[in-house]
Amino acid sequence: xxxxxxxxxxxxxxxxxxxxxxxxxxxxxxxxxxxxxxxxxxxxxxxxxxxxxxxxxxxxxxxxxxxxxxxxxxxxxxxxxxxxxxxxxxxxxxxxxxxxxxxxxxxxxxxxxxxxxxxxxxxxxxxxxxxxxxxxxxxxxxxxxxxxxxxxxxxxxxxxxxxxxxxxxxxxxxxxxxxxxxxxxxxxxxxxxxxxxxxxxxxxxxxxxxxxxxxxxxxxxxxxxxxxxxxxxxxxxxxxxxxxxxxxxxxxxxxxxxxxxxxxxxxxx
Length: 269
Prior knowledge:
Blueprint: E1 16-20, H1 25-36, E2 40-45, E3 55-58, H2 64-73, E4 78-83, H3 93-111, E5 115-124, H4 136-141, H5 150-156, H6 165-180, E6 191-197, H7 205-212, H8 214-222, H9 229-240, E7 251-254, H10 258-266
Parallel strand pairs: 1-2, 1-4, 2-3, 4-5, 5-6, 6-7
Helix pairs in contact: 1-9, 2-3, 3-6
């Protein structure tokens, strides 16, 4: 179907949206779509890009001082944040936790004063967060995790890269954090939701296949295909729009039916 179905009415007309991880994959496609839908894009990435951004800020989202400087440099009157930057489990466990969880939370919480009323925050979680109920103890322990304590936290909770555990944990914790923030800024109309893709054909897909091994092979047998960034970005854009003001603290699976399969399998349905 033509992309024209998304342009009617310019869903994000005159909105200023921050997209982290804008240089590749889902972040790049989200930036492109926001522009197509009438919005302005402030891109944040550790890599330089000129694609689909009106302003670009280079930043390491694992470093507290860098994030603080970034926040000070960013303009006010922001209408939305798409938190898409992330690392695969081939990076060190400490780095994965810093970028995918601690840095993301720190950036978002400190950006609230710069957001317009009725702004939308969309976190890119993952199908990897599906089993968060089994990690409640570690998730609770991470609620107020500081940058300098991440390495010790990973050791204490045995969060390593074995079978991608570091990545799975960060996405589990991100799903829970999103739910917990359902009404955090309700007095200003600011809402937070998450999108959980299944396996998506991006530059880091090979990293997941390398790390997950047998688990990835099972997914490949069950699914008809890997997702594409073009499958995910429209859902992110929809949640950034004014059409979703009463969707709060929700995790939306965009995974080709994989989470439904897992629910049915788990409950022998």
